[in-house]
UniProtKB/TrEMBL annotation:
All copies of domain SWIM-type, residue ranges: 400-438
Keywords: Metal-binding, Zinc, Zinc-finger
Organism lineage string: Bacteria, Bacillati, Actinomycetota, Actinomycetes, Micromonosporales
Entry keyword annotation includes Zinc-finger: yes
GO molecular function annotation: zinc ion binding
Pfam families hit by this protein: SWIM
Name of the featured protein: SWIM-type domain-containing protein
């Protein structure tokens, strides 16, 4: 999809005379300055920023010319987060500048896009180990210790696919657990052994002593590594890292490919790459958020939770549930709804959600999820008839059967389910049945 959402700022961003003025959007005041201070590990921070920008400009599936160069940056009380998706939307990158990495104050909560164009890339490349890197993110400046001339940022377009990607990644990552941790030396050796070039194979890794062992089939405790060459963006950061951590969902023998997170930790910074289940699959089409968006109360819950969100570094689901007077499951559904507007992310290292300030309403979930729209239309038309653990769904001239599995999952006789076997979220028929069941349960309560 070529449609974009555009931030509008008071002025353009510019780099000149040793300072970069980066405009912002969001927060309690128009175009607030939300951070002023130094990054305590400037060279590592510059390398990390370049890695996030490199992912943004790369299409790992069917490589063509560079894509977007505009990572998203969020200031949140004691940290900064820089995020991007690859041009194919199959890799999500994030650099977290943690409290130990900042010598300054995050005085407002805000989100903006950073224009990492060629002059700025060259300036960051020249940041040496003793060079200070000073950031003041706001309407006036983001100061860096380079003298590379002037860079002017145009108004920043944010692709709709990125918004959908933000929604899917936070739902998927919330199911992940730590699976392995490697010291830096072993991490470097492991990454050197990976296939190079435009590799599209699906591999699996399992802990083996202080390292990881590659295997062609999933086993209990394994982590999926699909398109291993997509981890290339981590390599420049290896010399600063203390450890590589790997996260993923629970798998078993015979499991289909699943996403995974690969994270380098320097102590002051964390650089992570989240890989889609297969190189040709972009996160924007995974459908993981659809079930969470299916409840009738989810829109109202999202409005309530949105009003309660603070700008703490992480979101406490149980605290929000207590404040809102709803259960934790409904809070997670509300967070998924807010995620469709890019306003919620998930940090696997903290095992917690975090808040972005985005100029989009949570109601866009309906517009951006055709399967959700189709499921609601089927319900409104009375096209769903349930009989125990099975249901009949009439769609036009076709009739489909949806069956509930012992684990609570749903299967369908439609072509979508036959093709994807539930790996890319529910089809609209199964989603409509899920909505009907949820509504009937709520009515009985």
């Amino acid at each position: 999809m070529n449609a974009v959402q555009t931030y509008r700022y008071l002025a353009s961003s510019a780099l000149g005379q040793g300072s970069l003025a980066l405009q912002t959007s969001g927060g309690p005041a128009p175009n607030p300055r939300f951070f002023t201070g130094f990054l305590t590990t400037p060279q590592a921070a510059a390398v990390g920023l370049l890695a996030v920008a490199e992912v943004a400009r790369t299409r790992y599936h069917r490589p063509i010319s560079p894509a977007s160069l505009d990572p998203v940056v969020t200031g949140s009380r004691d940290r900064l987060r820089f995020e991007s998706f690859s041009g194919c939307c199959g890799v999500y990158a994030r650099l977290d500048a943690l409290p130990a990495g900042l010598d300054g104050d995050v005085v407002e909560h805000g989100t903006t896009n950073v224009d990492v164009n060629t002059p700025l890339r060259e300036a960051l490349t020249r940041v040496g180990g003793l060079d200070p890197l000073h950031l003041s993110v706001g309407p006036d400046d983001l100061t860096v210790s380079t003298m590379d001339g002037e860079v002017v940022e145009k108004k920043v377009p944010l692709p709709v696919r990125w918004l959908r990607g933000f929604a899917e990644v936070q739902v998927l990552a919330a199911r992940f657990e730590p699976r392995a941790e490697l010291p830096a030396a072993e991490a470097a050796a492991f990454l050197r052994r990976l296939p190079a070039g435009n590799d599209r194979s699906v591999l699996w890794v399992v802990p083996a002593g202080r390292s990881l062992r590659l295997t062609s089939r999933p086993v209990a405790g394994a982590v999926c590594l699909s398109g291993a060459s997509r981890l290339t963006a981590l390599r420049p950061m290896l010399r600063f890292a203390k450890a590589l951590r790997v996260y993923g969902p629970t798998v078993a023998p015979g499991s289909a490919p699943v996403p995974s997170v690969w994270e380098l930790d320097t102590g002051a910074l964390r650089l992570s790459l989240t890989l889609s289940p297969e190189p040709y699959r972009g996160f924007s089409g995974e459908g993981a958020a659809l079930t969470a968006l299916a409840g009738d109360d989810v829109v109202d819950d999202a409005d309530l939770i949105s009003a309660l969100l603070s700008w703490d570094p992480t979101i406490d689901v149980d605290r929000l549930a207590g404040q809102a007077g709803i259960d934790a499951g409904r809070v997670r559904g509300a967070l998924a709804q807010l995620g469709t507007a890019g306003r919620v992310g998930y940090d696997v290292a903290e095992a917690a959600y975090f808040h972005r300030v985005m100029p989009y309403d949570a109601g866009r979930a309906e517009r951006d999820n055709p399967r959700l729209v189709g499921a609601r239309a089927l319900l409104d038309a009375g096209a769903v008839e349930r009989d125990g653990t099975t249901a009949t769904v009439r769609s036009g001239d076709e009739v489909y059967r949806v069956r509930e599995l012992p684990d609570g999952g749903l299967t369908c006789t439609c072509p979508w389910w036959a093709k994807h076997r539930g790996q890319r979220g529910p089809c609209r028929h199964a989603l409509a049945v899920r909505m009907l069941v949820t509504n009937q349960v709520e009515e009985r309560v």
